[in-house]
Write a structure and sequence with these properties.
33% of the residues lie in helices and 17% in strands. It is α/β, with parallel strands linked by helices. The relative contact order is 0.09. The model is unreliable at 1-7, 22-97 and 387-394 (pLDDT under 50). Residues 406-483 form the Glycosyltransferase 61 catalytic domain.
Length: 563
C-alpha cells in the first residue's frame, strides 16, 4: 500500500482545471452523446418539499433575514397565527441526494411533511440554541409559529400565550450564502465546513415536562401523534400478515429539549417502559444533553459552528394548538398529526400495530392474542364476500364481531381507591351486573385495580380486552394496547354533565367506538356532549346505572352502533 502525501497547490489547481474541462466537454457534447443506457446524476440540493407526495402547508408571512453581522437572524414572527388564509400546494422537489457530504457542502433544508406542531425536516441546523433553516426560498415554508415555540410551560393567560410565540432566537432562516459565510471552511486552505453531523433520524420534542410526565399525554398523545406522523410522512406500509413491521425508517434518537431525565417519566413508570419496549435501540437525550449541544456552539471567541441533523421530526405542543383541529376542536396535539395524514391517504389502517406489538411482546403476550384484531377483521372481510348467510349465523357473536364468545373480554378498571370514583353502592351493583352478563354469554370479565397489578399484568389484560370501561381516569390510557376489532369499545363514566376529549378522541382515532355514560344515559358519536367539568367531576360520588352499561355492551357486541 502506498503512502499518501499532502496535496500541493499544484494538485488543487490541476483538479480544478480538470473539472472545468469536463464541464465544458459535457456541456458542448452532452446533447449529442446521450443514449438509453446513460447514467445521470443530479447533485442539486434544493429547498421546499422532498416527498414524492402532495404536501399542503399554509403560506408563510416572512422573508429571508440577513445575518451578515450575527448568526441569529432578526426575524420577528407575528404574535398570533394568521387567520382565514388558504393553503397552497408546494410542488415536491425530486432527485435530492439521500446523503450529502457536509464537509464541503451545506445542503438546503427541506420539509418532508408538515402539520401544525409536527414537521419532518431534512437538513436542519442548530447553533447556540437556535434552529436554522437554510433555504433560498423562505416563502415556501410555513410560518414558524406553526412549527415551534419558546418551549415554556403553558398557562391560559394572554401574557403566557404571548411568551410562547417563537422568535428568531428559536428558529431563523439563512440563505445558502449566509450559511457559507457563517459555517463554511476556507476553500483555498482546503478547510472543511464547521458542521458536525448528527446522522440518522431524530425526534426533537420541544415541550416542557408539564404534560410529558403523564401516561396519557406522553403515550396516547405525544407518542401516538409522533408515530402517526412519522409513518405517514414516509407513506409507510404495515402488512396484516406481519403487523409488527413497518416500512417507515427507523428512529435513532429522541431529544427532550426542555425536559430533564425525570421530566418525561410518569409516576407508575409506563412512559419509559413503553418507549423502551417499542424502540429498544433508541438513544434518549434530555435537557442537559441539549444544553451541552448549545454550549458547545455558543463560544463567541471560537469560529462559529453548528450541529447538522440529517432527518428530524420536530414536535411542539404550543404550535399544535395553533392548528384548527387541536386548538378549536379536540385539544389533542396528536389530532393534527393523524388527521393530516388521513387526509393525504398516507396512514395505513394498522399504523399503530408496530408500536403496540413491540410493547406487548416485551410484556410477554402470546402471538394468538396479538393477532386478535387482525384475525377478526379477516373473518368479517371473508363473511362480507360470502352471499346468503343463514339467519342463525347472522345472529352469532362471530358474525357481528369476528370473535368467538370466549374471545370477548370485558375489563372494568375500578377507581374505588382513587380520588375520583363511583358511589360505593353503584360500583357494587355494576360489578354484579357485569358478572351476570358474562355468565349468560360465556364471555370473560376482569375487574381490575391497576395499582395492585404489575405493568406486565395490566398490559396482558389490555391486549385481549374487547370492551374497556371505567370512570374517567388515567387507567383508560390502556386502550392504546387493545386489539382493534369490529366491536372494540371504550365506555367512559362521567359525573353527569361532565365530558372530556382525552379517551374519546383516542378511541375514535384507533377505529374504536366510545360511549360516555351519565348515570342512566349514554352518548356516542356523532352526538357527544360538549366538554365540561362540573362540580362533582373529580369527586367520589359519581353515579352509574348498571343496566345502562350492560345494555351498551350487549348492543355493541350484537353489531349495533357500528363505527
Amino acid at each position: 500500500m502506498g503512502i499518501s502525501r499532502p496535496r500541493t497547490f499544484r494538485d488543487v489547481a490541476l483538479i480544478f482545471l480538470g473539472a472545468a474541462a469536463m464541464h465544458f466537454t459535457t456541456s458542448f457534447l452532452g446533447p449529442f452523446s446521450e443514449h438509453p443506457g446513460s447514467i445521470i446524476v443530479n447533485t442539486q440540493v434544493g429547498s421546499d418539499y422532498v416527498a414524492d407526495v402532495p404536501n399542503v402547508v399554509p403560506p408563510p408571512r416572512h422573508d429571508s433575514p440577513h445575518v451578515a453581522d450575527h448568526p441569529v437572524a432578526k426575524q420577528q414572527p407575528d404574535p398570533a397565527p394568521p387567520r382565514g388564509r388558504e393553503q397552497n400546494v408546494i410542488k415536491p422537489v425530486t432527485d435530492v441526494p439521500a446523503v450529502v457530504d457536509i464537509a464541503y457542502t451545506i445542503p438546503e433544508t427541506t420539509i418532508v411533511q408538515h402539520a401544525p406542531g409536527w414537521t419532518v425536516f431534512k437538513n436542519l441546523y442548530m447553533m447556540n440554541g437556535t434552529m436554522f433553516i437554510v433555504t433560498s426560498r423562505p416563502k415556501s415554508f410555513p410560518d414558524i409559529v406553526f412549527i415551534t415555540s419558546t418551549g415554556l410551560p403553558a398557562e391560559n393567560t394572554p401574557e403566557n400565550i404571548a411568551a410562547r410565540v417563537p422568535t428568531s432566537e428559536d428558529m431563523a432562516f439563512l440563505t445558502p450564502q449566509e450559511a457559507r459565510d457563517i459555517w463554511g471552511g476556507d476553500v483555498e486552505k482546503l478547510e472543511q465546513n464547521r458542521l458536525w453531523a448528527v446522522p440518522g433520524n431524530t425526534f426533537i420534542i420541544n415541550e416542557p415536562s408539564q404534560f410529558l410526565t403523564h401516561y396519557y399525554h406522553f403515550c396516547a398523545e405525544w407518542l401516538f401523534g409522533a408515530w402517526a406522523f412519522w409513518q405517514g410522512a414516509f407513506n409507510a406500509v404495515v402488512d396484516p400478515a406481519s403487523a409488527a413491521r413497518t416500512s417507515a425508517p427507523p428512529v435513532h434518537r429522541a431529544i427532550f429539549a426542555n425536559a430533564d431525565a425525570r421530566g418525561w417519566r410518569d409516576g407508575p413508570g409506563f412512559n419509559s417502559y413503553i418507549f423502551r419496549a417499542a424502540f429498544p435501540a433508541l438513544t434518549v437525550e434530555t435537557l442537559d444533553d441539549w444544553d451541552d449541544r448549545i454550549i458547545a456552539t455558543s463560544n463567541p471567541d471560537a469560529p462559529r459552528r453548528a450541529w447538522h441533523f440529517d432527518t428530524v421530526l420536530l414536535s411542539d405542543r404550543s404550535a399544535a394548538f395553533k392548528g384548527s383541529i387541536c386548538g378549536s376542536q379536540t385539544q389533542r396535539i396528536a389530532a393534527e398529526a393523524t388527521e393530516h395524514m388521513r387526509k393525504l391517504g398516507q396512514l395505513t389502517k394498522l399504523w399503530w400495530e408496530p408500536v403496540r406489538r413491540g410493547v406487548l411482546r416485551f410484556a410477554g403476550v402470546d402471538e394468538r392474542t396479538l393477532d386478535l384484531g387482525v384475525k377478526a377483521d379477516a373473518v368479517m372481510s371473508a363473511r362480507g364476500r360470502v352471499k346468503g348467510i343463514g339467519a342463525g349465523a347472522a345472529d352469532s357473536t362471530k358474525a357481528t364481531s369476528g370473535l368467538s364468545d370466549k374471545d370477548i373480554v370485558i375489563t372494568y378498571i375500578s377507581r374505588q381507591s382513587a380520588r375520583r370514583h363511583l358511589l360505593d353502592d353503584d360500583h357494587a351493583a355494576l360489578v354484579q351486573a357485569l358478572e351476570d352478563m358474562v355468565k349468560k354469554h360465556g364471555w370473560e370479565l376482569n375487574v381490575v385495580q391497576a395499582e395492585r397489578l404489575s405493568k406486565e399484568q395490566q398490559l396482558q389484560i389490555a391486549a385481549k380486552t374487547t370492551i374497556l370501561l371505567g370512570v374517567h381516569g388515567n387507567g383508560l390510557t390502556h386502550l392504546i394496547m387493545m386489539p382493534v376489532t369490529p366491536v372494540s369499545t371504550v365506555i367512559e363514566i362521567f359525573y353527569p354533565k361532565g365530558f372530556a376529549h382525552d379517551y374519546h378522541w383516542t378511541s375514535m382515532a384507533l377505529g374504536m367506538r366510545h360511549f360516555a355514560i351519565w348515570n342512566d344515559t349514554y352518548y356516542t358519536h356523532p352526538n357527544e356532549p360538549g366538554v365540561d367539568y362540573p362540580e362533582g367531576f373529580q369527586g367520589t360520588e359519581i353515579p352509574v346505572y348498571a343496566p345502562t352499561v350492560v345494555q351498551v355492551i350487549e348492543e355493541r357486541i350484537a353489531g349495533l352502533h357500528p363505527v
